[in-house]
Amino acid sequence: MKFKATLLLSLALLAVYVAFSNGTPYLPSSLLGAFGLGESPLGFFTHIFLHVGVIHLAGNLLPLIAFSLLLETVLVWSDVLAIFLASGVLGGALFAFLNPGVELIGASAAISGLMAAAAALKPKRALVLLIAVPLIVAFALVPLVDFGEHAFESGLLEKKASLESEISVLLAQNRTAEAAQANASLQAVSAQAEQTAEGKAREAATPTDFSVHAFGAFVGVAFLWLFRRRELRNGLNEYADLGEQLFSLLGVARGGRKKK
């Protein structure tokens, strides 16, 4: 299957979110506490597949897809998986060692490894992605996700108010069985609203630590140096070609400039 690693990694991130978000834009805090990096040795692996909010997830998913697709044009799918996991686990471990007691959640280190590896192997294409992807995230993806979150919250409030009104009517009519069913639905909606409010506050209060990106990027390039040196040399040759082209352009620009 072509682009197997990209498909597997994307589905893994999405599957975890869909399975445990309880139909809301946020994972429960209990899950993040149990499987984030900081509480359990298992967290060294599981933290990669968790995100503090849907904006965090979307902001990681787009670069994952973009740079994983680029890498799969050069490397086999198992290499891409290995870079992702090694960068996430080892980058996260280095972060944890230097920042004891600080909880880490997200695939940032793993994706930084993919980005650095792609930049090392295919600098021309990677440069385009390094410019385009952040712009798409900032000016298209984040506003779209934010709009969806607001629409979801508004829908929950309307549904909650409707159920409360329905329960009052049913109780006034002495239809206790139906009122109990409506109350169960109300409790489920209230739980979703509580999880959403908690997650929204958590996402707003959770900072981004850019050092973990650097750790992940280092591991991604180190993987290439250890296991894919031929491909890495080809990437370095492309850098040399880019340098020659740049110096050539600068030479033309200087040669074409005249003093008055």
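(the above was protein one; protein two follows)
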Amino acid sequence: MIPGALSRAMAVGRARREAGEAGRDAVEAVAEAGGGELLFRGVVRADPRWEDRAGFLFGEMEIEGTGAWAGSSYRIWFKNENVISWKDGRVDVTVPDLICVLRGDDGSPVLNPHAPAGTEVAVVGFPAAEEWLGERGLAILVPRFFGFDVEWDPGRFPRRQRRGR
């Protein structure tokens, strides 16, 4: 367990609940409370493609942009967890940073692969916990570990800062 993870999760959940009660955008509240960034909004293009292989859930989700993201697309590849994402065919976020898919209407989490075609979703990215950024963490939680010839971008979330314990 990463120190402070439960407190952070509780703060994010509280922000989501309070935003919903106040009629504010729950997705934006979740992103702000978790120190993340709203990356994309759209509609799931087709039922996610997935397979259960050797005890892992492998698959992809494709999202067609809406609103400010109309005309753009977002794709996420997962192996149990979301590992790498592309916006308009270009790598956007990778592990060890977090890629989270939320329901667009209430900010609740969407679990892989439970986002049927037509589901309105939002994608939020969060900077990785510092514990993953050392030599040992970066040896196992980077795109290359999952077979992608891509480097992790440590500057993707420039607001990265030391979290309180």
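Reviewer note on protein two: Residues 5-22 form the longest helix (18 residues).
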